[in-house]
Structure formats: structure tokens, C-alpha cells
TrEMBL record:
Name the record gives this protein: RNA polymerase sigma factor
Originating species: Streptomyces aurantiogriseus
One Gene Ontology MF term: DNA binding
Keywords from the named record: Sigma factor, Transcription, Transcription regulation
RNA polymerase sigma-70 region domain residues: 17-80
Biological processes per GO annotation: DNA-templated transcription initiation
Taxonomy of the source species: Bacteria, Bacillati, Actinomycetota, Actinomycetes, Kitasatosporales
Domain named RNA polymerase sigma factor 70 region 4 type: residues: 117-167
Family label: Belongs to the sigma-70 factor family. ECF subfamily.
Record text on subunit structure and interactions: Interacts transiently with the RNA polymerase catalytic core formed by RpoA, RpoB, RpoC and RpoZ (2 alpha, 1 beta, 1 beta' and 1 omega subunit) to form the RNA polymerase holoenzyme that can initiate transcription.
Pfam family, one: Sigma70_r2
Amino acid sequence: MNGDPAMTTPTLPAERFEADRPRLRAIAHRMLGSLAEADDAVQETWLRASRADLDEVENLTAWLTTVVSRVSLNMLRSRRTRREEPLETQVGEAAVDAGEGADPEEEALQADSVGVALLVVLDTLNPDERLAFVLHDLFAVPFDTIAPLVERTPAATRQLASRARRRVRGGTPAPAADLARQREVVDAFLAATRGGNFDALLSLLHPDVVLTADRFVVPTPEPITLGGARPVAHSAMAATGRALFTGPALLDGRVGLVMAPQGRLRLVLLFTVTDEGITRIDVVADQERLAGIEVAVLEG
């Protein structure tokens, strides 16, 4: 037999790998929260695939899914071990820093397509829970396939996904009618802020609306309080850049907004909504306060 490795070791054609790249990238993004890290995971998957003997692989898509999942899981475990994210990172900087090598606009679009709130909740899960939920609930991978990746039985892996699912859904929300009204107003607030539509934003605010922001939001030496629709609307217009990485979520059972570049929670906006409009907005970036707020995914 010819001893040339190029003749004896099967290689994966690039075009065949490219056919699976969108799925692999989507899995890695939901695992890691960052497009830059997801692309690193996909690149490592390609390198492993190009070196592997694939003669015995019956389902290449399933094999690649396993590889990118294992790579992503290792990256996530390593990140948790290093605790690489400094708590004192400024929110304003985080909003425009989508990660080295990533396009901030693409990062924001991908976060929107997945759901910013989902990425935030996934970031609170331990790596094994995150893998079980992402692969099973989002990509329909059987528990029998996931179990070896987390070194558990299929039944135990099912429990991992179940715990993650409860976190995603959160506790008991406000009544459906209240949530629908809150969602309508909060979605309109986000759209007006992103679009720079001052008049639309003004129409959502009660004339005597109050906005508070803790000292970590800007940051400033002291918390900030603004009163009146126009000052609050002008303040919101100044945060258009942050709105790119912001999405609706359930915050302690009420509809609010979470800002999370790379899927990592930086601040929340808590709204008080009445029939007369938004009467209060509390902007929270204090990590201790954020840790006490239950974030869950809105249905629909």
C-alpha cells in the first residue's frame, strides 16, 4: 500500500464541510454566546475533521455536531475555570465590543435571531446543562448521543436539560393580559430607541416619568435620577449603541429589557407600565443587584 498519508488518510472535502458550517456555527454560538468564539470552535472542528479517518463515519453531520459540541464544551469549561470576565467592565465599552474578530452588527443580528434573553439565561447554566439543553431542545439531538459528551447516562442527561428548561421558562409571570400590554410597550420602546425615533419614544412615556440609573450604568460616582418625558427620552436616545445588544425578557415575572453583548448580562431596564404609559424606568448594572433578578425567556 502506498505509504503517502495523503493517499491513505481520507480527507473531508471543503465543500462538504461548508454545507454543515451554518449548523455548526449556530450550535457553537448558542453554546458560547459569542460569534468570534463560535467561529474559533468551528475552525477547530474543521481542523479535526480534516485530520480524521472518516471511512467508518456513517452520518457525517452527526459526527461534526459531536465534534463542535465537544470543542465548545471544552471552551466553555475553560472560560468558567479562568473566570476571565472582569466585573468592573464598563457597560458602554461592552456594548460596542462584540469580541475580537467579530462584526458588532452581525453579532447583534445573530443575538436578535436567537433571542438576547435566551443567551443570557444560557450563560447562567453550568456547561453540561447548557450543552444538554442546546443540543436537545434547540437542535433535536437525542439524549443517547449527548450523554457521552457529558459523561452521564441518558436519564441523567435528560435531567440536565430539564433543569435548564426550568431556568429558561422562569417562575410565575404576571397575568397574560398584563404581559401582552407590557410587551407591546417595551417592544415599542426598544424599536424607537434603536431607530432614533424621538417622537415615538416620547409618546410611550408618561409626562412625569422617572428614570433611575445606578452608578455602574455610565458609570458615575452617584446614581442618576431624571424626571419628565423629554429628559428621559433624550437619555434613551443617547443609548442607541447599547440597544443593538438589547432584547426583551421576563425580569422577575415582568417584561423588561436585557443588554448582553456576547450573551453576557451587563444591564437591565425595569419598566413600570400603566394605561397612561411608562411611568418609571430603573436601569440596573450593579452585578450584585443583577444577580438577584430572575431572567427568563418570553414566550412567542
